[in-house]
Specification:
It is built from eight helices and five strands; from the N terminus they run H-H-H-E-E-E-E-E-H-H-H-H-H. The chain has 176 residues and is mainly alpha-helical. Strands 1-2-5 form a three-stranded antiparallel sheet, with no helix packed on it. The chain has a two-stranded antiparallel sheet with strand order 3-4. It is globular and about 55 Å long. It has helices at 2-7, 9-18, 22-27, 71-91, 112-125, 135-146, 151-158, 163-170, and strands at 33-34, 39-42, 45-49, 52-56, 65-68. Helix content is 48%, strand content 11%.
């Protein structure tokens, strides 16, 4: 699990720093990233339906969004691209060109439920309090609001349908 955890660090980082949903991150393609501009377009999600992976629209109408990336996340994504290129060169014809940003070692899509299960195992192995993978999204939102980021901005970054929905969930962290 430690090798898998290290390999998936770019995914963990991306989720924690953007507040994206698991399926949104796993649905990302390299075309969705503007590395030079430091932003990512969320336009799809990869979700399990009856045991199969299906590419869908984001969860809400506001789910289609452009998110700015911090410099360290951009650097992590650059390293991710270089690692994928190396893996592709090493595997040659065995490489599966899914076009996804976060993939298995052979380029195949990652299954969302397996990623959540791995995250849960890693949390247990680290003797941390239980937190589901979706907890990274909540942590992002809670920290942003606690630091005074405008609720409308947090709501847009999360792709919530309304600011009121964001405030209903996270009002407990707002400085009062």
């Amino acid at each position: 699990d430690s090798v898998a955890a290290q390999r998936l660090y770019p995914l963990w980082r991306f989720l924690a720093m953007t507040g994206c949903r698991r399926g949104e991150a796993l649905g990302l393609t390299w075309r969705d990233l503007d590395i030079e501009g430091g932003r990512v377009a969320i336009t799809r999600a990869l979700v399990p339906v009856d045991g199969k992976l299906v590419e869908t629209e984001p969860k809400t109408k506001r789910g289609r969004r452009l998110i700015a990336l911090d410099a360290e996340t951009v650097a992590v994504l650059r390293r991710q691209a270089a690692s994928q290129l190396t893996e592709q060169q090493e595997l040659g014809g065995d490489w599966i060109d899914s076009g996804r940003v976060f993939t298995a070692e052979n380029g195949a899509q990652l299954h969302p439920e397996r990623i959540s299960a791995l995250f849960a195992r890693l949390v247990r192995a680290a003797a941390l309090p239980p937190i589901p993978l979706h907890g990274l999204r909540h942590t992002y939102a809670s920290l942003a609001l606690a630091k005074g980021v405008n609720a409308a901005i947090v709501s847009r970054r999360l792709g919530h349908a309304t600011v009121a929905f964001t405030l209903d969930i996270y009002s407990h962290v707002l400085p009062q």
